[in-house]
């Protein structure tokens, strides 16, 4: 009898939980925005809002703001502090901002915002969590005489899926302070700082917070680095990401992973993960440990091509308290391919840490005959359905290559 009662109570709890979950979903609301909307409207499909600020003011956690296609250009400053003007200041958790249809992607053009301070086109404030952006573009963000601006400044927690930041003077995705989140199938390209101070502060993706995951993302022709982990307190993961043609005058690395500059490292030095990534034709390094005072990353199944300062640079520092640069002794580097330019530099790694790579695997050689194509411009081709990476032949191995099992393809 007790067993039957327990089963009944358990079943009742499961049904109650399912009902509550269904009720929460059923109660979630949808609001609509359009370039020709009006904030005096009720936010319906036929009478949409005009601004993120208005949509956020009425939405609650679990709700979705549908963004109709077209170009959004009529912005005002949502909030400011001593350094920044925040145009769209996201202060509520749990809200999704997404394109109403993938066939007509909304474009947020901030070229009308004068950069009297640093500009953050979108800021996810500290303490805000579970904010999602899906299938939008950001362009036109200016920097003026400031040191930097940002398309997305993430101090809280956010997920970006198929979001593109392009043709701006600003960082694309900038996770900072305790910022965390995920970028999936996102692109950042042609983001160029126009002045001597901003050109070296304009990255495609910046992971400077408490840990970010990047999957299937691309960064090309940004004026500083493709991906930058400087001062990160958390471990970051780069999985199937591409970096190409960072040649506009800044640091110009594809993947700059690690380092603290003159800042104080955290008590526990994070170790990052870089796997199945592709870095090509950058003016500096393809994959760079960047003076990490400890192990910067585990680097596996990556492919590097024609990066001017070296394809893999494992430069470390002695320790958090000794900033002397040394050839890396702690990196883990396996199953990678490097072709054209130096394969690996600043490396004093033990054999167990750096095995089965194209430059030291017994019995293999690397030549152009190993690859179906050496045309790196293929990396910028249009994405496929649902934002998948484009189908390319660049750096894919030929059937006869003895490098099979190495690299990202």
UniProtKB/TrEMBL annotation:
The protein's superkingdom reads Bacteria
**Signal peptide annotation:** 1-28
Cellular compartment(s): Secreted
- Gene Ontology cellular component? extracellular region
Pel9A-like right handed beta-helix region domain mapped to chain residues: 26-339
| TM regions (residue ranges) | none
Q: Which GO terms describe its molecular function?
A: carbon-oxygen lyase activity, acting on polysaccharides; metal ion binding
Provide the alphabetized UniProt keywords.
Calcium, Lyase, Metal-binding, Secreted, Signal
What cofactor does its activity depend on? Ca(2+)
What family does this chain come from, according to its entry? Answer: Belongs to the polysaccharide lyase 9 family.
PANTHER family linked: PECTATE LYASE (EUROFUNG) (PTHR40088), PECTATE LYASE PEL9 (PTHR40088:SF1)
Q: Under what name is this protein listed?
A: Pel9A-like right handed beta-helix region domain-containing protein
């Amino acid at each position: 009898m007790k067993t039957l009662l327990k089963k009944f109570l358990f079943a009742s709890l499961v049904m109650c939980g399912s009902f509550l979950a269904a009720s929460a979903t059923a109660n979630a609301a949808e609001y609509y925005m359009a370039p020709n909307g009006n904030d005096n409207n009720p936010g319906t499909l036929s009478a949409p809002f005009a601004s993120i600020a208005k949509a956020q003011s009425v939405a609650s956690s679990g709700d979705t703001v549908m963004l109709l296609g077209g170009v959004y250009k009529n912005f005002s400053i949502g909030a400011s502090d001593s350094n920044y003007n925040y145009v769209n200041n996201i202060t509520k958790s749990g809200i999704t901002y997404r394109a109403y249809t993938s066939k007509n992607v909304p474009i947020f053009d901030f070229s009308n915002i004068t950069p009297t301070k640093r500009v953050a086109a979108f800021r996810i404030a500290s303490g805000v969590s579970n904010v999602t952006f899906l299938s939008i573009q950001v362009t036109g963000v200016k920097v003026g005489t400031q040191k930097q601006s940002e398309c997305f400044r993430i101090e809280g927690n956010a997920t970006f899926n198929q979001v593109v930041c392009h043709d701006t003077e600003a960082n694309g995705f900038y996770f900072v302070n305790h910022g965390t989140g995920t970028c999936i199938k996102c692109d950042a390209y042609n983001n160029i700082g126009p002045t001597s101070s901003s050109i070296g502060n304009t990255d495609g993706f910046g992971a400077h917070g408490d840990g970010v995951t990047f999957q299937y993302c691309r960064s090309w022709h940004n004026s500083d680095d493709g991906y930058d982990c400087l001062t990160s307190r958390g471990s970051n993961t780069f999985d199937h990401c591409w970096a190409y043609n960072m040649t506009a005058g800044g640091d110009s690395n594809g993947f700059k992973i690690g380092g603290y500059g003159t800042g104080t490292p955290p008590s526990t030095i994070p170790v990052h993960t870089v796997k199945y990534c592709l870095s090509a034709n950058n003016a500096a390094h393809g994959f760079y440990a960047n003076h990490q005072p400890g192990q910067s990353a585990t680097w596996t199944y990556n492919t590097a091509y024609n990066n001017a300062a070296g394809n893999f640079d494992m430069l470390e520092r002695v320790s958090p308290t000794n900033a002397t640069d040394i050839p890396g002794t702690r990196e883990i580097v396996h199953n990678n391919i490097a072709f054209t330019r130096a394969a690996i530099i600043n490396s004093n790694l033990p054999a167990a840490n750096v095995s089965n790579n194209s430059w030291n695997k017994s019995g293999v050689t690397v030549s152009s005959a190993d690859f179906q194509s050496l045309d790196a411009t293929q990396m910028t081709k249009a994405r496929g359905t649902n934002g998948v990476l484009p189908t390319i032949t660049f750096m894919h191995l030929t059937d006869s290559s003895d490098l099979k099992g190495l690299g990202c393809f």
